[in-house]
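Dear support,

Our group has been running a series of protein-ligand predictions, and this particular one with iron/sulfur cluster is the one our PI (initials K.S.) wants archived with full inputs and outputs. We had some confusion internally about which version of the output was final, so please treat the block below as the authoritative record. The input we submitted was:
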Amino acid sequence: MIKKLTNQDLKALLKELRQEFLVIAPFKVKQGRLMKVLYQPVKNDEQLSSIYLTDQPDASPKEYFLPRDDKLGEETAGADCEPADWQDQPRIFLGVRSCDIAGIELFDDVFIENDYIDPFYQQRRENSIIIGYSCSEKADNSFCQEVGVNPVDNDNVPLMLYQKEEGFFLKINDEDKLKEMGILEKIENLADGTDEDLEALINERQEAFKEDDFTIKSELPFPEKEAFSSVNWEEVTASCLGCGVCTFYCPTCFCFKFFWEDVEKNRAWDSCMFSLFTEHASGHNPRESQEQRWRQRLMHKFSYHPKNYQGEPGCVGCGRCVSKCPVNLDIRKVIAHFENSIVGEGVKGNEG
Ligand code: SF4
Ligand code: SF4
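Confirmed final output from the archive:
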């Protein structure tokens, strides 16, 4: 089902949804001296006019599912911490782009769809509805299509929003879920759009994404033995400061550590780019250099994750690690260097 909305219709719909849901959307926010686009809860109806959908948000919404600092509760001997019953309003995330949707799907694979279920993640995920957003142009440094993400269209979220010159199309992908959450009845009376009109918009956008100067030539998973024996990682990663910014902004990086405050157990983001990440209590560190940490980061995304999760890459090509790195270390160049070392042939467009 396709619906057609004016800007006013969208605002009215969000206003209605706010009665029952916490709506979380991208806003321009001042952080220190910088303006950033970040997901924030909508606090009042007036703020609906300031939602900013034009550019890719600086950070994905991952911290709403895996908070950077999460109090898990009091730990008792022999029992895992369990989340308290969900007390907050259920949440709607507006304007989530395909790369970040793929990031959340990767988290689902890791935290709820395999042997171990993380009850804290599961609770947040089950209480969230995602409204996707179709990209109209390529974000800086992104290469999403190279890792199988379609930036323009997405059927994996219950609702998908496509901004036009005037107004929006809204595609309903999962009527059952929307009915269950009481959202379908709020949408049904909006004006109908046509499949043909939406398809024309999608095709036009897809043209804009055809040109890309970066390609990944190797099949996944990247070969592990050669990564250790044939690649000079220092040559391409020597400038890395080990600051971890790339991993904190990455929508697919999920490494964390536990720490205790008295009996209270906490979980906080950690990073494979930190030297302490692998340091043993004995003082021995199996990844003692920064280039070894870089090798781990690249191989986790393009070798170990695909091996463990049915060939799926552990990178969604959002480009944030490139945009945010203080020394301009570019994962596309590291991939090209890896490929050149392994197959001995140049990767067009990736050098320089
Ligand atoms: S952001 Fe750049 S400098 Fe910092 S750890 Fe990542 S690659 Fe290294
Ligand atoms: S590795 Fe870089 S490009 Fe890939 S998902 Fe993470 S931040 Fe985005």
